[in-house]
Amino acid sequence: MNPIQVSLTEDQSRAAFRLSHIITADMVAALTQALESLADSPHLKLVTIEGAGADFSFGASVPEHP
């Protein structure tokens, strides 16, 4: 499952990134890749980052930070 869902408005002026689950190194890499894919979008004016669901984690993956 992709930890990030990306949607664009019809005119491609807004990109919404919805993050699911806890923030992991894989999620950060996926977010970086998604942002880089939009870097040359001439109509993009706004990027929002949202948590998916009521229980989205606001922290990081503890096992990844020994």
Query: Spans of 5+ residues with little confidence (pLDDT < 50)?
Result: none
Tally of alpha and pi helices: 1
User: Which term fits the overall shape?
Assistant: elongated
Give, in spatial order, the strands making up the sheet with the most strands: 1-2-3
Order of helices and strands: EEHE
How would you describe this protein?
With 66 residues, the protein is of the alpha+beta class. It is built from one helix and three strands. It has one helix at residues 25-37, and strands at 4-8, 14-19, 46-51. It has a three-stranded mixed sheet, with helices on one face. β1 (4-8) and β2 (14-19) form a beta hairpin. The protein is elongated.
In short, what is this structure?
By secondary structure, this protein is α+β, with helices and mostly antiparallel strands. The chain has one helix and three strands, in the order E-E-H-E.
